[in-house]
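User: Sequence in, structure out. Go.
Assistant: Echoing your sequence, followed by the structure tokens.
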Amino acid sequence: MSLDETRTDDPSWPGAPGAAAWLNPPVQVERTGDGLVVTAAEGSDFWRTTAYGFTHDSGHALLAPFAEGTAVEVTFVLDYGEQFDQAGVLVRQDERTWTKAGVEVSDGEPQVGAVVTREHSDWSVGPVPDWAGREVTVRASRSGDALTVRARAAGSPWRLVRVSPLDPGADLLAGPFCCAPTRAGLRVRFTRVATTTADASLHAG
């Protein structure tokens, strides 16, 4: 099976939502007992212009249609640790309109955050050193004019990462992504991808 034909309803992806296709196929994809191990290309990234002056649209993402009223959850093992290593969820309209959210290594420690891109990228992060070595789940929820992103490490409560505006009528794709902007050999072990119902509220209770 070619990378472009990889299906997220493969038994190694519990609860996955159906066929998906790679945006920028990675160096290697290995099926394991509990998911996929994805090897990222050196220099792979998603970013547009802001602060750095460059545009990269070369990150690896396994994307499927992302319907209104649904949420995509991606779980991976946070066992990487070099500068700008990253994994999580990508929500994409086109090369100028997208959001990536997950855990990225910056300034020597893992940071949970998001990059929201509308022609130009912004970036927000918060340190999560206690998440290192654990399974992390990132949840992107589509409801009306908003994309709500939450994340948690295994055994921890959900943490709100970002709320950003969304075109309610846009055709969107979403799924797991990883990037290795500064090095070769990044391997990310994804253990779960699933589609569920969108969050009912921004706030608990």
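User: And one key feature?
Assistant: The CA atoms of residues 27 and 34 lie 20 Å apart.
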